[in-house]
Design a protein that fits this description.
Low-confidence stretches: 51-58, 74-108, 119-127
Structural class: alpha+beta
Protein name: FecR family protein
CATH class of the largest domain: Mainly Beta
Number of domains: 3
InterPro entries: FecR (IPR006860), FecR_C (IPR032508), Ferrdict_sens_TM (IPR012373)
CATH topology of the largest domain: Jelly Rolls
Shape: globular
Transmembrane segments: 106-124
Helix content: 25-40%
Strand content: 25-35%
Oligomer: single chain
Number of strands: 18
Order of helices and strands: HHHHHEEEEEEEEEEEEEHEHEEHEE
Keywords: Membrane, Transmembrane, Transmembrane helix
Number of helices: 8
GO molecular function: sigma factor antagonist activity
Radius of gyration: 28 Å
Mean pLDDT: 78
CATH architecture of the largest domain: Sandwich
């Protein structure tokens, strides 16, 4: 049996995602060569106009159902190829049944040729970017240069398939990212946010996009945070900078611990920390609002370390240690 052209398998599936035979054919073709996955994703993106997913994170067996829903919901029409009309001799009525498959085959050949040309242009267009997004979960990914990004929940980033030229650039579109940069002095690394650029050579730091602005916290090394208006600040380990969208100044503060990146490490450390600070850190980590009710509560000091404990466990320890009462109601915690 003659094997179908590669692009033919992909296009047949995209036209009829509910067809089990096309689905099996595509699945078998994807298993033949790891490079086939890239071809499929490029073709699907061109077909739908979607952002390409990272190939390494694409699991064929687990994504069939989601892919079917997306393609079906998109109600994508067949590819239309317009050519200059040419006179065609009229065919006898009895031969129409034989002519139709041949015309269809020519259509498929034209569609395959056009798709291959578009894919080739897409693959060689530089730079080519990949978008990565998280929902309720955290995730991590390894960039082409060896730099690792740790993504907090509800975070979206964009990065090139390959770093070319003398710079390495990543774009944080929303959320929070911890960056562990591969040391390459000859090729500076930059993280771009809406109104702030962060420039480094080799270090680890956290950037967080909020409704109010951008926060940058350095764990190791040294970074330079630059406002779009040109103002900048150089940060060293333990320092945090906050740049508000509505303002033009940069405020900095020094932290004695790494609680700002607890979402990544799971570690929370409090050394004689006032309860007002503890409440702010716990509220951010567990995504709740913590309200202190009562005079003198804000100044109570806590000495404790937590590692991935649940909020209820932390509140229980807090209550016993500081002799307070903590009541949780959904996403609200009140401390008396």
């Amino acid at each position: 049996m003659k094997q179908q052209p590669d692009i033919d398998v992909v296009i047949r599936y995209l036209e009829e995602p509910g067809n089990e035979e096309h689905k099996r054919s595509l699945d078998e073709w994807l298993q033949l060569d790891a490079a086939n996955l890239d071809i499929f994703l490029e073709t699907k993106a061109l077909w739908q106009g979607d952002v390409l997913p990272a190939a390494a994170s694409y699991n064929i067996s687990q994504q069939w159902q989601l892919l079917d829903v997306q393609l079906t919901a998109a109600n994508i029409p067949p590819v239309t190829i317009t050519t200059q009309p040419q006179p065609v001799p009229a065919a006898p009525a009895e031969e129409k049944g034989r002519i139709k498959p041949i015309v269809t085959r020519y259509w498929w050949a034209a569609a395959a040729a056009a798709a291959v040309v578009v894919i080739a242009v897409t693959l060689f267009r530089q730079p080519s970017y990949i978008a990565q997004q998280t929902a309720q979960n955290t995730d991590s990914l390894l960039l082409p240069d060896g730099t690792r990004l740790y993504l907090n929940a509800h975070t979206s980033v964009k990065y090139p398939r390959r770093f070319q030229g003398s710079n390495r650039e990543v774009f944080v579109q929303q959320g929070e990212v911890f960056v562990d940069v591969k040391h390459m002095p000859e090729k500076p690394f930059s993280v771009h946010l809406k109104n702030v650029d962060v420039e480094v050579l080799g270090t680890s730091f956290d950037v967080k996009e909020t409704k109010q602005g951008v926060k940058v916290f350095v764990q190791t090394g040294k970074v330079k945070a630059v406002y779009k208006n040109g103002k900048s600040v150089v940060l060293t380990p333990g320092e945090e900078a906050e740049m508000l969208l509505a303002g033009t100044t940069i405020s900095t503060r020094r932290h004695q611990n790494n609680n700002l990146i607890a979402w990544k490490t799971g570690h929370l450390t409090f050394v004689d920390a006032p309860l007002s600070e503890v409440a702010a850190v716990l509220g951010d980590y567990y995504k709740v609002d913590i309200v202190l009710k009562g005079e003198g509560l804000a100044d109570k000091k806590l000495l404790a370390t937590f590692h991935k404990e649940s909020l209820s466990e932390v509140l229980d320890i807090l209550s016993k240690t500081l002799q307070v009462k903590a009541i949780q109601k959904d996403s609200l915690v009140e401390i008396y």
